[in-house]
Amino acid sequence: MATAGKVIKCKAAVAWEFNQPLVIEEVEVAPPQEKEIRIKIVATGVCQSDLYFLTKCMNKVVFPAVFGHEAAGIVESVGPGVTEFQPGDKVIPLFMPQCRECRFCKSPKTNLCVNGSAGKVDEKSFEASRISCKGRKLLQFLGTSTFSEYTVVKEIAVAKIDAAAPLDKVCLIGCGICTGYGAAVNAAKVEAGSTCAVFGLGAVGLAAVMGCKAAGAQRIIAVDINPEKFEKAKVFGATDVVNPKDHSEPVHEVIAGMTNGGVDFSLECVGNVEVMRSALESSMEAWGVSVIVGWTDMYDIAIRPRHLICGRTWKGTVFGGFKAKDGVAAMTNAYLEKKVKLDEFITHNMPLEQINDAIELMKNSKCIRAVVEVSPP
To answer: How far is it, in rounded angstroms, from Cα 274 to Cα 263?
Structure first.
């Protein structure tokens, strides 16, 4: 392409300060360096993790930044040493890399990669950024920064997808859908004929419901304090719905009463430590498995040992346990083969200039997923 090897000036939504609206700015995106890829971002979802670092985390080292990590685009150019991609490839950038060479990548026990940052941010993170504005380097959030028309990502953090994939749909596979669906099928390992409870019915929670159904769960209880989400949960496979506000007793007691002692599998998809405890206590004490899916790093969890001693398993998962490159390609194919849903998650489509509206929708639980059309394909 004509832009290969040159600095690209383009639009991006820049977060200059904590908990302030994003500003559409002209940014400069440097050419990719060794083992890097420059991607034209076509569409990006707005995820709760973006909101967490923008409005809750209060880590001032994060700013200024370009957020966004759930996207799809087209390879514009590649740096020296790149062998897996070429200009024109349809791709999904990954906030979790898969180098295929480290001890984590070679182990079937984890989907982590030694080369991943796991959300850690410090001054060195700015040094590696390829995006700048007004003479300042901007943090590339989770190494991706998809609220920009162009971004540069490491080769180990990009998944090539089928050329037939619609980018404004499969962008959701880059975070929320894999996270929730994989939490059920990979982390919890939901069994056919089992009972499940999913706490939180945003995109991640609904994807978890979809995963429970795909695994053959007989009963799936969807839990949320917003009853407007219940019909959507049923579309993805929920058999029962529970609003904790409708009951005087704690929700785990409600679920225990519905299931003769608790569910076989519970999944917390909110990122709230109190809900994490409720999800654990909702599982059968003798063999229940409870998975923490929602992200937070602000508070400790308090639990009494007896809630685990009798046989419960409490575990966590990131990106649904998928090895990133392999999982994203497989989930894209599953969508094209109509084995998983994506369209049903999308409640809003809007241009980059309206990204603050998308954020407000997410803050106020007025959408499942807003897809931002960053640039034309």
So the answer is: 18
Predicted confidence (pLDDT) at residue 312 exceeds the cutoff of 70? yes
* Confidence check: pLDDT of 48 > 90: no
Separation of alpha carbons 168 and 282, rounded Å: 37
pLDDT over 70 (residue 59): no
- In sequence order, the 6+-apart residues with CB closer than 8 A to the CB of 115 are 97, 99, 102, 154, 156
Best CA proximity match to 181, nearest among 340, 12, 46, 335: 340
Strands 369-373 and 346-351: parallel
Amino acid (1-letter code) at residue 34? E
Residue 320 DSSP code: G
Asked which of 114-123, 170-179, 335-344, 357-366 is least confident by mean pLDDT, the reply is: 114-123
Q: Is the pLDDT of residue 292 over 90?
A: yes
> What's the rounded Cα separation, in Å, for the pair 251 and 9?
52
Question: Hey, what are 282's tokens?
Answer: 């909702």
Given a contact cutoff of 8 angstroms between Cβ atoms, the answer to whether 179 and 47 are in contact is no
For residues 139 and 126, the answer to whether their CB atoms sit within 8 Å is: yes
Q: What angle do CA 61, 64, 68 make, to 5 degrees?
A: 100
* pTM recorded for the entire structure: 0.94
Q: How far apart are CA 365 and CA 147, in angstroms?
A: 21
CATH architecture designation of domain 177-320: 3-Layer(aba) Sandwich (3.40)
Residue type (1 letter), 19: N
Helix axes 251-259, 273-281, angle to 10 degrees: 20
Query: 3-class SS at 291?
Result: strand
| In the chain, where the domains are located | 177-320, 343-376
Q: 76-100, pLDDT tens digit by residue?
A: 999 999 999 999 999 999 999 999 9
